[in-house]
Design a protein that fits this description.
Blueprint: H1 3-27, E1 35-37, E2 46-50, E3 56-60, E4 63-64, E5 71-72, E6 77-81, E7 87-93, E8 98-99, E9 102-103, E10 112-116, E11 123-126, E12 128-130, E13 134-140, E14 145-149, H2 156-168, E15 172-179, E16 185-191, E17 198-204, H3 212-225, H4 229-237, E18 238-243, H5 248-252, H6 279-293, E19 300-307, E20 312-314, H7 322-338, H8 356-364, E21 368-374, H9 387-405
Parallel strand pairs: 3-7, 17-18, 17-19, 19-21
Antiparallel strand pairs: 1-6, 2-3, 4-5, 6-14, 7-13, 8-9, 10-11, 10-14, 12-13, 15-16, 16-18, 20-21
The structure holds zinc ion (ZN).
Protein name: Peptidase M14 domain-containing protein
Family: Belongs to the peptidase M14 family.
InterPro entries: Cytosolic_carboxypeptidase, Peptidase_M14
C-alpha cells in the first residue's frame, strides 16, 4: 500500500468515526422541561411531544360517530407540569371536525381557553387559531402546575356533590332510572311537589364537552334548594325534573360528543332508542312513558347544550305548531328579561330533525326546545363565559319558568 493510499484510508476512517459519533448525538433526546398529565378525571385523550423549539405539540384524539363520517374534537383538558416561571407554548392539532357530514369551518377568532393555577379559580384567555385548524396557547407558569381546558370543567365528582346535597333536601329526590353503556348510573332529580300545577323537564350534558349545561342546572338547583321566598313561590307553580348528565361515560373519558358506542344522544329522537347502543336515551324514554302514564307529562322540556351561537333552537316538526311557537316566543322574551340571554331564537328556515326537542314534540307531545349556550362569548355580558356566568343564568331560570307557567 502506498503511503498516500494509507493516509486517505486513515482519513476516511477518522471521518466515518466522526459521522458515527454525530449520528449517536442525533439519536439522543433532550429531557423535556414540561410534562403533560392526562391521567385524571375528565382529562382529554391526546398524544403529545416536545418539538425542537421546546413547544408542546398536542394531537387530540377524535371522538367518532358510529356508521357516520362525523367526528369531533372540541374538548381539551390537561395538566401542564413545569417549573414556576416557565414560558409554555402549546400547539393543539386535530380540529378537522366533521359535523352533519360536512367539514367544519376554520376555528373562530373568538376561540378561548380556560386556565387554572390552583384547580379552583379559572381564567378565560384567547387562543390564536393557526392555519390548518390548530390552536396556539401561550402562558407563563404561575405555579408548578396549570390546568388547561376548552371550557371550565364540570366533572362527575361535581355532579356527585350536587346529588348528595339534593338527597339531604326534604323537597327533592334523586331516582336512578338506568345505566349508561359503561354501567354508570343515570339519575333523574326532582325538586318540588309532584302535584304542582306544572312540570318542567331539563336534560344537560348530552354532549360530553358541553359543561355549560351542567353549570346552568347547578345554578337552578342551588336557587330552588335555597328555600328563599322566590324559590318557595316558584315551586308552588312548578315541579322540576332533571337528567343532569346524560353522557356520563363521555364526561368520564374527557371526550367531546358521542356516547361510549359512538352514538349522538341528540339525534334519532324520531324513533325509539336502541337499549344497547343508546341506553342513555332508552332509559329516559322509559321514564317519560311512565310519567305520561301517571298523568305527569312535562309541560315544557329544555335540552341544554353549548355551541358557538347561543340560540334557543325552536323545534319545527310537521303539523300545527302555532301554540308551541307562541309559547317559545314567550320563553324567548322571558329569557331576555330575566337573564343575560340576548342571542334569540332560531329562524323558521332552521331545522335540525332528530333532536330531543323535535322528538319530544313529535313522539310525546311535549313542548320542547334545545337551548344552546355560546361557549366562546356571552354577548349580553360582553365576556367569555366562566362557570359563574352559567350558574347565574341557572339561578335566574327559576324566575323565567315561573313567569312562563303563570
Ligand atoms: Zn350539544
Amino acid at each position: 500500500m502506498k503511503l498516500t493510499t494509507f493516509l486517505v484510508l486513515a482519513l476516511v476512517g477518522v471521518l466515518a468515526g466522526r459521522v458515527a459519533v454525530a449520528s449517536a448525538a442525533a439519536d439522543t433526546v433532550a429531557t423535556p422541561k414540561i410534562f403533560i398529565h392526562t391521567g385524571f378525571e375528565n382529562a382529554s385523550p391526546m398524544n403529545w411531544r416536545i418539538d425542537s423549539a421546546g413547544r408542546v405539540i398536542g394531537s387530540m384524539v377524535y371522538d367518532h360517530e358510529r356508521f357516520s363520517p362525523n367526528r369531533a374534537v372540541n374538548h381539551y383538558h390537561f395538566r401542564v407540569e413545569a417549573a414556576r416561571g416557565t414560558e409554555v407554548t402549546i400547539i393543539l392539532e386535530n380540529f378537522d371536525n366533521i359535523w352533519n357530514g360536512r367539514l367544519a369551518s376554520d376555528l373562530s377568532e373568538k376561540s378561548r381557553y380556560v386556565v387554572s393555577f390552583d384547580h379552583k379559580k379559572w381564567e378565560s384567555r384567547p387562543v390564536v387559531p393557526l392555519p390548518g385548524r390548530r390552536v396556539f396557547i401561550q402562558f407563563k407558569m404561575e405555579a408548578p402546575f396549570a390546568y388547561v381546558a376548552s371550557v371550565e370543567p364540570y366533572r362527575i365528582s361535581d355532579l356527585d356533590k350536587m346529588l348528595a346535597r339534593i338527597k339531604q333536601s326534604k323537597i327533592a329526590s334523586v331516582t336512578t332510572i338506568g345505566k349508561t353503556s359503561e354501567g354508570r348510573s343515570l339519575e333523574i332529580v326532582r325538586i318540588g311537589n309532584e302535584n304542582a300545577p306544572k312540570r318542567l323537564f331539563l336534560r344537560a350534558r348530552a354532549h360530553a364537552f358541553e359543561a355549560g349545561g351542567n353549570w346552568t342546572v347547578e345554578g337552578l338547583v342551588q336557587k330552588l334548594l335555597s328555600n328563599d321566598e322566590d324559590a318557595r313561590r316558584y315551586l308552588k307553580t312548578y315541579c322540576v325534573y332533571i337528567l343532569p348528565m346524560a353522557n356520563k361515560d363521555g364526561v368520564a373519558h374527557g371526550k367531546t360528543r358521542f356516547n361510549a358506542n359512538g352514538y349522538d344522544l341528540n339525534r334519532k329522537w324520531d324513533k325509539p332508542a336502541d337499549s344497547l347502543i343508546a341506553p342513555e336515551n332508552y332509559y329516559l324514554e322509559q321514564w317519560l312513558h311512565r310519567m305520561i302514564k301517571d298523568r305527569k307529562k312535562p309541560d315544557l322540556a329544555l335540552d341544554i347544550h353549548n355551541d358557538a351561537g347561543g340560540n334557543l333552537h325552536i323545534s319545527r316538526p310537521d303539523g300545527d305548531i302555532s301554540a308551541y311557537l307562541s309559547d317559545m316566543e314567550k320563553l324567548d322574551m322571558l329569557l331576555r328579561k330575566h337573564t343575560w340571554f340576548t342571542e334569540g331564537s332560531t329562524k323558521p328556515s332552521f331545522r335540525n330533525p332528530g333532536t330531543l326537542g323535535e322528538g319530544l314534540m313529535e313522539r310525546f307531545g311535549v313542548h320542547a326546545a334545545v337551548y344552546e349556550l355560546n361557549y366562546e362569548w356571552i354577548a349580553g355580558l360582553k365576556k367569555a363565559p366562566l362557570a359563574e356566568d352559567w350558574l347565574s343564568l341557572g339561578k335566574n331560570l327559576g324566575e323565567v319558568f315561573y313567569n312562563y307557567f303563570k
